[in-house]
Amino acid sequence: MKRRGLICGGLLLVIGCTLFGAAAYLRINPHHIAESRVQAAVEERAETIQPQEEAQAPAEAAPAYVSPVDFEELWDMNPDIYAWLYIPGTDVNYPILQREGDDSFYLDHNSEGKSSQEGALFTEETYTKKDFSDPVTLVYGHNMRSGAMFGNLQETYSSQGGLEAYRDIVVYLPEQELHYEVFAAVPHDMRHILYYNDFTDPEVFQKFLEQALSVRSINANIDENAEVTAEDQLLILSTCLRGDRDQRYLVLAKRTAESAAP
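Below the sequence we write its predicted structure tokens.
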């Protein structure tokens, strides 16, 4: 298994330009994204029908899932885009990318594939499937002082009430959407989480959870009533910890639901 390090620190924490142009946002608006919902229509009969005489109506098929993200348009710009991350009420509303054969490419390239100090939100091909089926999916993003990428993540979840106010995380895929519930936001050392932890081993998974939930720091915010086990699937957002270059800042969420095409 290859070991990949992540660049962290002042070198990349500078004010950057906009991630990409308006074209990528044509079909998605953070204030108008809504979950797909199946609405059943019940028609009232004008006359009483005996139960044994009532004809059984054919079951209506659930409508196919339609993503609010226009992935076809995004793929024209960059085929490395495979998902979209959205945290309602925050500025986090970006595509997630993965570059085949180069886990560190999006440290210094934007979602158009162009050189950029802001980089992009990305996962590592070495450790992460693009269908979010892994026990833990870890998404990286820079802590930009401009607030771009994960620049406001630490401020948002370290604040009093932040965990409760911004608990929902939505991941949009071409044929389904996934919902996650944030249960902790904590500092973490610089060790590569997916390299050093085999999350397919329940004991390793449980030990990692216990360590994360035991962190005591001014920047830590933990839901003490959260019920999380090694049977859950986690989404972890990872960025540099502002004020300490020797640590990272993690937002941990567990999957709660999904909507998919039939």
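The chain has one domain: 74-260.
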